[in-house]
Amino acid sequence: MTSAQTTGVSRDELLSAIEEIAVILGRSTYVVGMTGAGMSVESGIPPFRGADGLWTRHGTPRMDGYSQFKKDPTGWWDRRTNQEIDAHIIELRDALAAAEPHAGHYALSELEKQGSLQSLVTQNIDALDEKAGVQNLIEIHGNRTKLRCIECGDRVSLGDFVPLYAPGPCEKCGGLMKFDTVMFGEPIPADVMATARAEIDRADCILAIGTSATVRPASGLLWIAAASGATIIEINPAETKLTPICDVSLRATAGEALPLLLDALSK
Ligand SMILES: [Zn+2]
Q: Which of 77, 111, 184, 198 could form a disulfide with 117 if both were Cys (CB 3.0 to 4.6 A apart)?
């Protein structure tokens, strides 16, 4: 395993690691990106975990959000409308509303356009990958700008419209509609999990970016890929649980590394 530190390490070392990653991507046939909270942090969205995380500052919320919602959906929407929700949710919502894609998001979209990246599995709900133009996108924890029926899984895009009151029943099946974002205690929608697993099974190279690889079941996909022989490349400012199984682990932010990787692959 090679490791390049961007802190206290020369730009030459960073560029040499980027070159190594570019060579691996160049000889791979199916590259799947896997992104986590670190991508969002670079767009100003606070993470839940870590020293400055929302839960560290506001306290860990109840982990039964989904069962509370299903018991009383109208009450859930009323509390939301009346701002009777956790301070950490309000802070997160404001940050999400203001966030824009950064250079790393746009570089991933360009890598896909030029055929260096076949799909992107993201754990983020911020819709910034979509906004940056990524096409083959699997949002494993949902997308905050969509509603989803919990019965048939039909999704409705909201665009910039944010509903303040409970939406009507599903137009397809009459089922209960909720934000597509996966709540605590809510299973990952079966269609999304199956698509993500199929992408991981096809991949001979995984580009894991800004993910601490600790949130299940998404993180498990990385170990499945490694066990099936895929080359694992990590781009993350900090060492993670994934680092020991990576072929290359680059200590850099996505916004720093991905545009350089795009340059290296565009030569
Ligand atoms: Zn439905």
A: 111
Is 258 a domain residue? yes
Give 149 Cα–ligand 1 centroid separation in angstroms: 5
Statement to judge: residues 90 and 109 lie in one domain: no
Same domain for 249 and 211: yes
Does the pLDDT value for residue 9 go beyond 70?
no
Give start and end residues of each alpha helix (H) in the chain: 11-27, 37-41, 54-58, 65-71, 73-81, 87-98, 103-113, 128-132, 190-202, 218-227, 254-266
How confident is the model at residue 1, as a pLDDT?
44
Q: How far is the CA of 176 from the centre of ligand 1 (A)?
A: 7
The domain in which residue 93 lies consists of 55-97
Told to judge if 58 belongs to the known catalytic residues of this protein, a careful annotator would answer no
Confidence of residue 2 (pLDDT cuts 50, 70, 90): very low
Q: Quick one: 28 and 91 in the same domain? A: no
The pLDDT value recorded for residue 3 is: 45
